[in-house]
Design brief:
Blueprint lengths: L3 H8 L1 E4 L5 E5 L1 H11 L3 H10 L2 E3 L11 H8 L2 E5 L3 H13 L3 E5 L24 H12 L4 E5 L8 H5 L4 E4 L7 H10 L4 E7 L2 E7 L7 H4 L4 H6 L3 H19 L9 E6 L4 E6 L1
Parallel strand pairs: 2-3, 4-5, 4-7, 5-6, 7-8
Antiparallel strand pairs: 1-2, 8-9, 9-10, 10-11
Helix pairs in contact: 1-2, 2-3, 3-4, 5-6, 5-11
Length: about 280
């Protein structure tokens, strides 16, 4: 059998940028064929290609912002995300396109028409669907190299540690406040960071909670009145999710967190951004 490295080299093609710079690249189609031949996830093939200084075309526009060694770290990383609604759907889209190698997610909800204003997985076609079903289909169409598993269930507090086990980072994409503290405690129990975010109207916050550190769930309570009264407009949802995704990518890439033991509070009405220590 031809070796993995040799097969990647055979499938590589020359590529010249608009500036005339040349490099070797490999297509998503070639990655999929090699992955099938060697019975490995596509993300593993992409990581190996990068080690051979061959850039997957999918990540060509990542490379000046995410160096090859950091892209490899992302491809070999695993995250566990709780929630596939407003924040969760946008986060999933970003994680898939960025190339995080393994993602598992859970959400027991169904899509309804009121989700259409902000939830990227919610469409006229998916109304009434399980959010996990829409997420599984979306993941395959965006990036089949990612190992993705979405489950249709509302995780109970006692189930959270097992769900998070094996992940490098936990992602809090929950709606409301009811389960956030349990998720924070579960992440600490399995000794992984938690990236969290929430919003109400035009305001929101994001944070990184390292095991043993305080988090916003300890001071926000469990009352969802603010979100219900102020609403969930798409610009706030998208911004908070994007900030959460950036924090996740930084952590997985080996960079220290700039938000440990603190939160970043955003108000899009007044365009204010504040860092608050917890």
């Amino acid at each position: 059998m031809i070796s993995l490295a040799d097969m990647i080299t055979e499938q590589a093609e020359p590529y010249s940028s608009s500036k005339g710079e040349s490099q070797q690249v490999i297509s998503s189609e070639a990655i999929a064929a090699i992955a099938k031949h060697h019975a490995q996830p596509g993300s593993s093939i992409e990581a190996q290609a990068l080690r051979q200084k061959i850039t997957p075309l999918r990540y060509l526009r990542n490379q000046n912002a995410i160096p090859a060694q950091e892209q490899i770290l992302l491809l070999e990383s695993s995250i566990a995300q709780v929630g596939l609604g407003g924040l969760g759907g946008t986060l999933l889209d970003i994680f898939l396109r960025t190339g995080i190698g393994s993602i598992k997610a859970a959400d027991g909800d169904l899509f309804e028409e009121s989700n259409l204003n902000r939830q990227s997985l919610s469409t006229q076609k998916t109304l009434g669907w399980e959010k996990s079903r829409a997420a599984n289909q979306r993941a395959y169409t965006i990036n089949p190299s990612v190992s993705f598993d979405a489950r249709h269930l509302f995780l109970k507090p006692k189930e959270l540690p097992e769900f998070l086990t094996g992940a490098d980072i936990a992602i809090d994409a929950l709606g409301g406040l009811e389960t956030r503290l349990a998720l924070q405690q579960a992440a600490a129990r399995v000794d992984i960071p938690l990236v969290t975010g929430a919003l109400a109207g035009w305001t929101g916050y994001v944070g990184v909670i390292l095991p043993g550190q305080p988090g916003p769930a300890e001071i926000m309570g469990r009352n969802n009145a603010a979100e219900e009264m102020l609403g969930c407009p798409a610009p706030t949802v998208t911004l908070i999710a994007s900030l959460m995704a950036a924090l996740t990518v930084q952590l997985l890439s080996g960079h220290p967190s700039l938000l440990a033991a603190s939160i970043f509070v955003i108000d899009l009405k007044s365009l204010t951004f504040e860092k608050i220590s917890l």
